[in-house]
Amino acid sequence: MQVSVFDTYVKKKEGGLMHFDILVPVELRYDEVIGFGREYLRSKEQEGQPISAKECKFCHIEEASGEVKQDIETKGYHIIEMQGC
């Protein structure tokens, strides 16, 4: 399964920066990717923080690992937490 990787940087409510990747099936529309980003931010108590094309940019396409495939089949996306998450 090929997935698109979106490199995402969001300012936290209490200051600092969250850096995470959003991995989705390649055929997904960009507005759906942003929706998944908002869902993830809610799960981290960062609801309402700006997330748009400025914060979330397409990076590359890669082959999905088993864990990524499982998350995508279950919830539609996978998050890789990089920094400040």
Automatic annotation (TrEMBL):
InterPro entries hit by this protein: DUF2024 (IPR018592), NE1680-like_sf (IPR023122)
Gene source species: Fulvivirga kasyanovii
Superkingdom assignment: Bacteria
One Pfam family, short name: DUF2024
The protein's name in its UniProt record: DUF2024 family protein
